[in-house]
Amino acid sequence: MEHRTPDRPSVVLEDSKWTEYFNQHQPFPCSYQSKGRIEDRMDELVWKVRRRIQQCVSKKENLFEGMKTVDVLERLGVGYHFEEEIAIYLDVLNRNPVAVDDLYAASLQFQLLRQHHYDVPCEILEGFMDENGNLKDTLKPNVDALLSLYEAAHLSKCHENILKRAIVFTTNRLSSLANGDHLPQPVRDKVLHALASPTHRRIKRLEAKNYISIYDNDKESNQDILELAKLDFHILLQMHRDEVMSLSTQWYKDLNPRCMLGRYIRERPVESYYWALCVCYEPHYAKPRMMYAKIFVLLSFFDDTFDSYGTLEEVRQFNQAVQSWDEEAARQIGNCYAYLMSIISKTLEEFITEDGASQVGINCFKETMKDVSKCMLQEVVWRQEVHIPTVDDYFKQAAVISVMYLPVAVILFIRMNTSDEHFTWANSLPKIIEVTATMCRLMDDIAGH
């Protein structure tokens, strides 16, 4: 009986452009200084800035300066040094309105409190607006006030229509100013940066890099904060580079995926690390960040096996193996399926034994993987049958299979102080995760097509 080679999807994948780049040891600016000397200087600057925040707490007349300080620290990516001081300051700020007649102060207060999850009402801004969402004619706002209102308005909730109108108004006014010839170049750069995307939607590491340049040209910049931001960015850049090199040259190399799985997989260890870096860049999240990156690498293998390798019969059998989490059943399908199940199971076990991850969290993650496997199988069936699903059916799939939902579940169990109740809640696919995952899947599909 003639043995037929299964008909598999035809894929042509480019090698990653980044892995070799990050394998090269290139010196960074400031590398002529020892790490110890830089960290000693940072400790001095952290102490000075901490004292500055504490003074803003102790004297109510300094609350406005405190708001500007906190805003700058977080934009520059160094707010994590002052989490306790900022929390105390924000509690004071929440109890003390800064100024009912100062648009800049009121907008900045609203922005900071909303960003830190205080349930501050939008009514504190209504007094500055007319019924059309425009600023009252009696107000003559400067650029800082417009920028602050612009950022605040983008933190609106449903049905806060006045903030939605404020977005339109401030965008038009700032665009007009930026296109004119009246703004100094540093101020114009700041306006254009804001118009490109509001702060809370930006990737924090990129925002820090970009805002250091903007703040460096600000005549009112605090030199201690600026120096701290530059040194901190340098130290974290070195740490992140070492992490991505460890991931791509050691852990990933030991996986040997091209040999164990085949040419159909996307080799993207650096890109997977970047996903993790976008979620948590701070030094104290080094372990969760590496766990997140490893999981994302393995999830890309899982996705590619369904999309770019398996026949319909094979992925049906593989889905059954995943539902029972049966490595032996996966081994009977083929070597790549056995390896994939084995390396995922081994990695999850290492998270528990070596990294201190929660067993409950791992179990919740496995349950999520089972749901995702079902959805991936359904997409293969649709593709084979040339079936176009209804919008409702598509959305049901998208909410589970979204490239964002799995990392959300992962990040919950790798934050070491998470309780078992949090894992159970996340695994129930609550509305906030369902909607966010659906949005991310739609954005991914739009970008891909």
From TrEMBL:
Descriptive protein name: Uncharacterized protein
Terpene synthase N-terminal domain location: 18-195
Organism encoding this protein: Digitaria exilis
Domain of life: Eukaryota
Gene Ontology process terms (BP): terpenoid biosynthetic process
A GO molecular-function annotation: magnesium ion binding
Residues annotated as domain Terpene synthase metal-binding: 253-449
Keyword line: Metal-binding
